[in-house]
Write a structure and sequence with these properties.
With 105 residues, the protein is mainly alpha-helical. 69% of the residues lie in helices and 0% in strands. The chain is globular and about 55 Å long. 13% of the residues are buried.
């Protein structure tokens, strides 16, 4: 598994997850989010806002699941959003070699 995703999640959630596979990452992230739900819900909300996880999507999925395993549902949304951000960054990575020096910002 690429460490880019784990690094992005750790940075965004101020966590220290260390996973070798996607399933391990999901389990560790679920545990971390469950801890935040139980002990610092406001911090969880701040993290989700900063990561840009859709509040509508969170509410909708939690409602559909009846609130069962909310931490796993939120973990999946965090992973999904971080993967989207990584993909977007890769798409827009510029090759600075093509831009003349005087035109670079």
């Amino acid at each position: 598994m690429d460490n880019t995703l784990t690094t992005a999640i750790n940075r965004s959630l101020n966590a220290e997850l260390n996973a070798g596979s996607m399933e391990e990452l999901r389990q560790q992230l679920t545990h971390h989010i469950n801890h935040l739900i139980n002990h610092d819900f406001d911090k969880l909300v701040q993290h989700l806002y900063r990561i840009d996880v859709s509040e509508h999507k969170v509410r909708s999925l939690l409602h559909q699941s009846g609130g069962e395993n909310a931490a796993a549902t939120i973990a999946d949304l965090v992973i999904e959003r971080q993967l989207q951000k990584i993909k977007t960054r890769e798409m827009f990575k510029s090759g600075d070699g093509d831009i003349p020096g005087e035109e670079k910002w």
